[in-house]
Amino acid sequence: NGSVSYTVTAQVTALVSPMVTSVNNVASVTGANCSTTSPCTATDTDTLLTPTHFTVLKTAPDTVITGASLNYSFTLGNSGQTSAAAGQIVTVREELPPGVAYVGATAGTGVSAVSCTGASPSLVCSVTLSSALAQNATASFTLQTTAPAAAGLITNHASVDPSGGTTPPVPGTLCAPDSACTFATTQINTPAALSVTKSNGVTQLTEGVGATYTVIITNSGDTLAAGVEWTDVPTGMTIQSILPNGSTGTGAVTGTCSVTPTLGCTGITVPAASAGVNGSVSYTVTAQVTALVS
Predict the structure, then answer these.
(1) How many angstroms separate the CA atoms of 269 and 250, rounded?
(2) Within 10 A of 190 (CB to CB), how many other CB atoms are there?
């Protein structure tokens, strides 16, 4: 048959809705003899899909000690019906909290490479997808940082360009849309800081008498101290017993105490300081004086 052909370019303007799920393009011919076997119209129908729409979610540890490693985990998603292609670069903007130092970035599931540029606190990370990202699928990467030297609550904001471009919205409390913006908070604590006191409340002892000592282990840091132990080294006396005698704070473990073969206690957890009150555990030590005056 004889024929002529044309190329038609168009811009889709329809938006997906419960009532609109496809688009049609109809070509009509005039000036010809039309029949059922040789129609004068032709229709092309295509399913209408929402475009790729990137989302971002970030998580972080609840608590970290000052100066320690602080890793932020990012999850990229696609809420659109159109898949993002493998090899596509997704742009994430990161605003580090004061005192947080950038260390590096590591690719996770569905990501082949991550490259972050800029100077703290503002970073721009280019995230390369290793495979197609379909609707509701996710990809991940991790940002490594160092926690600040000062204790306190910090908030880290980030955003992604939802269209797949290179201009994410400004991270922060005014960032929009919500699905393209994320934040994570972390409490930065000072490390455990232990001290110990021991006293019998007197300055003189008589030969052959008994003596009672109080041992208090105190933690003035924001972080509880686990795996603590202490030993008793007497001179001129015999230790008869070591018994736990209370604690201050949450999460205290007084451990196991003995007088043989080792004098002291092991397996202790000293609570962290809270609301200006130091954590502590205490013990009562009874002894018999064996030294003689000479």
Answers:
(1) 10
(2) 17
**Could you read off the pLDDT tens digit of each residue along the chain, which spans 294 residues?**
778 888 888 777 766 666 656 767 877 787 667 776 677 877 787 776 788 999 999 999 999 999 999 999 999 999 999 999 999 999 999 999 999 999 999 999 999 999 999 988 999 999 999 999 999 999 999 999 999 999 999 999 999 999 999 999 999 999 999 999 999 999 999 999 999 999 999 999 999 999 999 999 999 999 999 999 999 999 999 999 999 999 999 999 999 999 988 899 999 999 999 999 999 999 999 999 998 888
Per-position b or e across 88-122, b if 16+ CB within 10 A of its CB: eebbbbbbbbebbebeebebbebbeebebeeeebe
- Give Cβ neighbours of residue 210 (< 8 Å, ≥ 6 apart): 240, 286, 287, 288, 289
Identify the CA nearest to 181 among candidates 51, 70, 74: 74
SS3 212: strand
Q: Residue 180: helix, strand or coil by DSSP? A: helix
pTM score, two decimals? 0.75
CB 211 within 8 A of CB 286: yes
Q: Which residues lie closer than 8 Å to 164 by C-beta, 6 or more apart?
A: 52, 54, 84, 88, 90
141: helix, strand or coil: strand
* Distance between CA atoms of residues 97 and 58, nearest Å: 14
- Of 17, 139, 19, 157, nearest to 77 by C-alpha is 139
248's tokens: 């201050």
CB 156 within 8 A of CB 60: yes
- Nearest to 257, CA basis, from 286, 235, 236, 237: 286
Residue 166 exposure: Cα atoms within 13 Å on the Cβ side: 2
